[in-house]
Amino acid sequence: MLIELSRKSNQKTVTFDDEYLSRLRSNDSETAEHFQRHFRRVAGSMLYGRFDRQTEADLVDEVLSAAIEKIMQGEPRDPSALPGYVRGICINVIKKVIRNRSREERVDLNIDRISGKWKTPEEAILERDTAEKVRRVMSVLRPRHQQILLALFFHGLRRDEVCEIYGVTRAQLRLILFHARCKFQKEWGDK
Amino acid sequence: MIPALMENDMRNSNEPDAREEAIRQQHQEFVKNYTVELYLLDELTQEERAQFEEHYFECEPCAEAVEAGQAFVSGIRPVKEHRVINRFWLPTSAVAATLLSIVIGQQYVIANSKGPQPNTVILARKIERGPTESAYLAKTPSVTVEVNLSGEARFAYYRMKIQSDKHYQLSQVVPAPPDESEERLSIQFARRMLGTGHFTVQLQGLESEESTNGTRLGEAYAFDLK
Predict the structure, then answer these.
(1) Gap from B108 CA to chain A (nearest CA, Å)
(2) C-alpha to C-alpha distance for B129 and B33, rounded to whole angstroms
(3) How far apart, in whole angstroms, are the C-alpha atoms of residue A57 and residue A52?
């Protein structure tokens, strides 16, 4: 298994190969930790925005436990296909939830869960920390860029509306977001 | 938008080194094309989206970038609270108090709302160019009124006075656009503050935020809300 230290992100880059899978199957703690961290992140990103916070967390857990179960049973045959395999499980879980939702429209009386406001104290602290970092990054951006990002992601204007109002092109929009995201990622790196 | 991926190369490459190299090249292409931003802006086709998701499932730097981007965009809020009211003239103090409580309540909604808030942007039109062409139908919780400053003298701050045909007036001091090239001055209100009707906007140029006397600018602007 190739593990190298990426200079930029100071993170281990892992190759998904036979050795990775056999370490995972033999409960190697470092590999299991990597598996959880990496696939929790990417599955979370894929599910992002589709469900409320709690459902999203539950589904990520479901994806990871289903993936682990299959891995223990000898799947996938081609170790390099592991990321795609986990993504496939993720897609199946999303499809299943959508199917179930349309079949039975249940009323959940837990208001906090419906509104996605339910969170553990640890999550609340993390969220406050992230909000503070976003605020710091926003405050160093040019006011015009702040307005553009607010219009897009806070006020929910459509991209073409934002381009028209602020006289920017789609490519400029992309660049503004890119620079802001890079600044944020730097701040966020030590999370 | 997305480069032709080296899918075949990747499928055929059983050697970890070759596969790793293919992922690295793919990563560079995605970075070059700002694919993370396209993904966050939802500008990828379904196929491109799937390709990128496949990639970031095995590319840690891209996974990290996507996660950070999602955390960033979902955390975006106004940097500081808008000071909507500097002065608020009304016929009677009782009505003023009632409206003030609505304003403060609505302002709280704008400043503290968790999700994206729909907003309507209204460009006030110069009165000398004739009557406003059509009324804006704003059903969003917030409204941004914009004024085009082209041709006006430049100041550090402006007092925007919005006069309603219902005999009330809102006033707020706003900083000048940071760039000389930017010509639009904007101010955001809770939708309910404005009500409906015909509104005129007058500007005063101020040397500082605290200035009480300003230079009245020649142009007047107007818009209609229904």
Answers:
(1) 15
(2) 43
(3) 9
B177 dihedral zone (left: phi>0; alpha: psi -120 to 50; beta): beta
Q: What are phi and psi of B17, to 5 degrees?
A: -65, -45
Residue type, A36: Q
Alpha helices in A11-120 (DSSP H): 18-25, 29-47, 53-72, 82-103, 111-114
Beta-bridged to residue B126, according to DSSP, are: B221
Closest CA to A134 of A115, A153, A162: A153
Contact B121 A165 (CB under 8 A): yes
CA distance A106 to A93: 19
Q: Is the bond preceding B3 in cis, omega lying within 30 degrees of 0?
A: no
Instruction: Region of A27 please: left (phi>0), alpha (psi -120 to 50) or beta.
Output: left
Burial class (CB in 10 A: 0-12, 13-18, 19+), B137: exposed
Longest dimension (CA), chain B: 82
For residue A127, what are the contacts with CB-CB under 8 A and spacing of at least 6? A119
Most confident of A118-127, B31-40, B75-84, B211-220: B31-40
Select the residue from B11, B35, B38, B64 to test the A interface by mutation, using most A Cβ atoms within 10 A: B64
Is residue A113 in some structural domain? no
What are the structural domain ranges in chain B? Answer: 7-75, 87-225
> Taking a C-beta distance cutoff of 8 angstroms, is the pair A56, A62 a contact?
no
Q: Write the residue in A2, A11, A185 that is nearest to B20 by C-beta.
A: A2
What is the C-alpha to C-alpha distance for residues B164 and B80, in angstroms, rounded to an integer? 27
The rounded Cα B191 to chain-centroid distance in angstroms is 15
Written as one letter, the residue type at A46 is M
- Domain carrying residue A151: 119-188
User: What number of H helices and E strands is found in chain A?
Assistant: 9, 2
Please write the tens of the pLDDT for every residue from A88-126. Answer: 999 998 888 888 776 655 444 444 444 444 566 777 777
Cross-strand bridge partners of residue B175: B157
Q: How many CB atoms lie within 10 A of CB B11?
A: 13
What is the pTM (predicted TM-score) of this model? 0.57
**Distance in angstroms (rounded) separating the CA atoms of residues B39 and B72:** 13
Task: Give the amino acid at A129.
Answer: D
Across the A/B interface, how many CB contacts are shorter than 8 Å? 153
Tell me, yes or no, whether A33 and A95 share the same domain. yes
The CATH architecture to which B87-225 belongs is Sandwich (2.60)
Q: Give this complex's ipTM.
A: 0.81
